[in-house]
Amino acid sequence: MSDKFDVIVIGAGPAGYVAAIRAAQLGLKTACVDAFTGKDGKQALGGTCLNVGCIPSKALLDSSRQYWNIAHNLPVHGISVKDAKVDMATFIGRKDKIVKQFTGGIGQLFKANKVTPFFGTGKLLKGNQVEITAADGGKQTIGATNVILASGSVPIELPFAKFDGKNIVDNAGALDFTEVPKRLGVIGAGVIGLELGSVWRRMGSEVTIIEALPDFLSVADADIAKLAAKEFAKQGLDIKLDAKLNKAEVKKDGVHLTYTDKSGEQQLVVDKLLVAVGRRAYTAGLLADDTGVKLDERGRILVDEHCHTGVDGVWAIGDAVRGPMLAHKGSEEGVAVAEWIAGKAGHVNYDTVPFVIYTEPEVAWAGKTEKELKDAGIPYRVGTFPFAAIGRAVAMNEAVGQVKMLAHADTDRILGVHMVGPGVSELIAECVVAMEFKGSSEDLARIVHAHPTLSEAVHEAALSVDKRAIHKGN
């Protein structure tokens, strides 16, 4: 053993790097081990999120939106632009620059907080030792009183549509197309499929999304999902539900797909295929056989309500454990575990974790859906309000969608809020705060909201729960 730490974190994604920084802030001697490599071949902290996930996808979503606006939104303002063109090197290069800025920023934060980074693949050994394997095969071992496993997740690969990095790609590949594919196929109508499908549709691709489930966005509230599906169809996203991919063959003229829907077997040829059917915990090679840490049937690390594995001093957080695979969920677990290790009161409320899809319009929600409340037999009241009646949304020419609020029929406590519309990724935060403090719809209804703002839709939805919305019939 070459060194002894209070805390070693394996993984420098949003869960791991946040855990490391918080542990160091609390006075714990901390190391963080990560093997992610940037385009320059150097260590790139930040995990999937900063390198090939949340941050680069949002950069491309914003760039593609600017291009889409030229033809679809500017004319209504009386603004015309002729012969707009995209330089793909700049389009992708801007994204890469942003990624490098943020991954480098994590390195600076480590330095400022005295977190020691190690570049290599970490493996937990018995006795809270961590073996680090460098890219050249060299090994070293370090030890700690506590080890936090934050190894993240990887894309699920289909056996009949294996990634080749060129024709059949995962999310990382879809962020680096050198030209706009004329025909793009997407397997999976989840967050990744919808966001990256939207990017390339705005840039001119004919996008077909094949989804195996019969219901669109089944994890979201049904009313919100229905509105979102309608808008995506208007934008030209061809979403085929209850359709199962059977085969994908790369040929000279493209990727030949065979899938089955209600009408039987179908054929489709695309230039590029994005497989986005979900992610799985990345725990392969993470644990020596004698550590005592256990995995569930899906390869996730088993933990208790405090993210402890049951092995003294070994914790696990983020995508590698139960719960939604969301960067912010992992980050909060990282903070909580660091605080528990330091003897403080860490806390994560999984009932108020917000979900966001950064499409156009955006989709966001927190808490229970109407179906979940019905299935559980919980009495509730519903309040809704459309963005079409919000002055700011109309002025922005983005008056699409609504806010839907669910409150307990007896106590009025807010049980869930669901939104589709402009800027809802930001609007959901107000509702999360109210829910965290066990607020009621009456609380939000009584709070003064600035006019004209998009947040007035939340205010009016809260009023609508009690059938007293001002700007719509109840």
TrEMBL record:
The Enzyme Commission number assigned here is: 1.8.1.4
Cited PROSITE patterns: PYRIDINE_REDOX_1
- Cofactor binding, note field: Binds 1 FAD per subunit.
The UniProt entry, under SUPFAM superfamilies, shows: FAD/NAD(P)-binding domain, FAD/NAD-linked reductases, dimerisation (C-terminal) domain
- The top EC class, named as a word, is oxidoreductase
The cellular location(s) given in this protein's UniProt record come to: Cytoplasm
| Keywords per UniProt | Cytoplasm, Disulfide bond, FAD, Flavoprotein, NAD, Oxidoreductase, Redox-active center
Please list the reactions this protein catalyses. Answer: N(6)-[(R)-dihydrolipoyl]-L-lysyl-[protein] + NAD(+) = N(6)-[(R)-lipoyl]-L-lysyl-[protein] + NADH + H(+)
Signal sequence, start to end:
none
Identify the residues that the record assigns to the Pyridine nucleotide-disulphide oxidoreductase dimerisation domain, covering every copy.
353-462
Q: Give the primary localization class.
A: cytoplasm
* Molecular function terms from GO: dihydrolipoyl dehydrogenase (NADH) activity
Q: Which domain of life is it from?
A: Bacteria
The FAD/NAD(P)-binding domain, residue ranges: 5-334
Q: What cofactor is this protein dependent on?
A: FAD
Q: Which Gene3D superfamilies match?
A: 3.30.390.30, FAD/NAD(P)-binding domain
NCBIfam families for this protein: lipoamide_DH
Instruction: Add the further remark from the entry.
Output: The active site is a redox-active disulfide bond.
Q: Which family does it belong to?
A: Belongs to the class-I pyridine nucleotide-disulfide oxidoreductase family.
Q: Any idea what this protein is called? A: Dihydrolipoyl dehydrogenase
